[in-house]
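Problem: given the chain below (245 residues), write out its structure.
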Amino acid sequence: MTKLYSDFATLYHRVYPSFIDYDEQHQFYTGLLRQYNCSKVLESGCGTGQLAKRMMAEGWDYRGMDLSEDMLDIARQEVPQGQFFQGDMRGFQSPEKADAIIVPARSMSYLVENKDVIAALHTFRSNLAAGGKLIFDVIDAHTHFLNMREGEPIFHQAQDRHTRWERKSVYYKNLQGGWTWDWHSSYVELLPDGSKKEIAQDEATLRAFLPTEMALFLNLAGFKILQQIEVGSYAFKTFVFVAEN
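Solution.
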């Protein structure tokens, strides 16, 4: 697991609202849930509870699951009325079956081997009610790899009310196990005097998917694809899939 979701979970919780528009993400996913008449929802990769907070405020029957206990600790503080449990998307058992499972924020990128993808899809099916919907996003491999500036630093800035940060990302292709790449990142605090204070360094191997590739995985796992939606984000072109159990 990347340190960003464990040792640096608090940093993630403070920094990523500058990168991800959680209000927009909430509206997008709940719009799809309403379209397919889903009410009992499980979020895989719920993180620190950003969507949980918004969904529960609207009265959704929501449950959150994450691999990281550090992230879940923050989620439980942020959403004390929420229901959260620790689990691995490649093999977990929810207390009850869901009408829909959502996997936002490109969490599928951490399934770097084919066996991981297949295990996760079968696990999702086993935790969905008959006719339940699986809704998730993936990074588009075609545009990401063709546009990748390998080894060239990419900078993003973030802030909350009191603090400003800068994240430097460097990507390197790593094609041994699919459309994967190594991501090296460092975080610094931007101080009022113009200097920088190093906060954290992290690295991870991530995966993107061709849309036809993910469609094949879904079909092999027994899902029926209902929608494929192209969406943008602050860093990547992505596709959202809606599939039926």
